[in-house]
Design a protein that fits this description.
Length: 337
């Protein structure tokens, strides 16, 4: 059986209803007359039994995989290992593609120079959440106007809820850094891919037709203001700076770039969005995250488990480390390298 051109990987954890909406929309895309050859894989957190049962019952054409541990980098790498397609297209479980998404992705990768592709991310209410973005080595993100070049010294970056990567290139850069359990895993892999492509503008394709909707559903990193991932984001953004800006520049500048959040917390306190206890909780998490970020950046090496694919095998051949989840339904065992 011929390998599909695109492998859509949906990383999910405890969002059964969101995942159902995503897969239901993907089913309509796959039924389109001009749809490219495609497979769909879901990669579940270890305790996601209810969602897995739903997928088996209602979407038997989806290949299910259960991760050994919860973590977006780990789950995305597992999906890349199990994929057979030339292109791995990542969707979050709380995202769903707009009309023409699959066709637009396939067309973008017709150019052999393209290593990654994406497009707009729209909120559920129709407002734009993300457009063209660029990231500095210190992790500062700026919007790039349509038609403008990526600013000097920065790298184009795409949101992980709408991110397609040439599979061979993803393996060549080691995959997603599994030290990043939340943000900025997508920014990190984009920066490494851009460097791998010789920092050529044509290696990243932004297409208006490659659009998704994204609801930003509640989760362990998105609760009340005081329970958001202030610690995790501060820590891992500083870790990102150490990986891309170098130890000296990161030591001097990464921490100060996190300080404006304290002013944001103070503004929320003044306007009544945070009470005194919640304000202290947010500030304490941010401060602890800054300290932890320096420790992580200085002492922890990247965890990049994917290895370049052998040249004597096709780009669509996954290594033997990925295993489909057991249970009923049509499951394709990964082919050995």
């Amino acid at each position: 059986m011929a390998a599909p051109r695109i492998s859509v990987v949906v990383v999910t954890a405890a969002r059964r209803d969101d995942l159902h909406r995503c897969l239901d929309e993907l089913r309509r895309h796959l039924a389109a007359p001009d749809a490219p050859s495609c497979e769909v894989l879901t990669v579940h957190a270890p305790d996601d039994d209810a969602a897995m049962a739903m997928v088996r019952a209602e979407f038997p054409w989806v290949a299910l995989h259960r991760a050994e541990a919860r973590g977006i980098g780990h789950q995305r790498n597992l999906g890349a290992r199990a994929a057979r397609g030339e292109i791995v297209a990542y969707l979050d479980d709380d995202a769903w593609p707009c009309a023409g998404w699959l066709r637009g992705l396939s067309d973008a990768f017709d150019d052999a120079a393209v290593l990654a592709a994406s497009g707009p991310v729209w909120r559920g209410d129709g407002t734009r959440q993300f457009g063209r973005l660029a990231a500095s080595p210190l992790g500062r993100i700026v919007a790039v106007p349509d038609g403008a070049a990526t600013p000097t010294g920065m790298s184009p970056t795409f949101s992980g809820c709408n991110l397609a990567i040439r599979r061979r290139s993803l393996f060549a850069v080691g995959g997603f850094d599994e030290n990043l359990v939340y943000q900025p895993d997508d920014m990190d892999v984009c920066c490494r891919l851009f460097a791998h492509g010789g920092r050529r503008a044509q290696s990243f394709a932004y297409r208006e037709t490659v659009a998704v909707h994204h609801e930003s559903s509640p989760g362990p990193f998105r609760r009340t203001l005081q329970d958001r991932a202030w610690f995790t984001v501060a820590r891992d953004t500083i870790y990102f700076a150490f990986r891309h800006a170098g130890p000296l520049r990161a030591t001097l500048a990464a921490g100060p770039l996190q300080l404006p959040k304290f002013a944001r917390f103070a503004a929320w306190l003044v306007t009544g969005r945070l009470g005194p206890v919640a304000f202290l909780r947010c500030a304490a998490k941010q401060a602890a995250g800054i300290v932890a970020g320096y420790a992580k950046g200085l002492w922890r090496a990247p965890r990049l488990p994917l290895r370049p694919l052998p040249t004597h095998f096709g780009a669509t051949t996954p290594p033997p480390t990925a295993r489909p989840a057991p249970g009923p339904g049509r499951h394709r065992p990964p082919q050995p390298v």
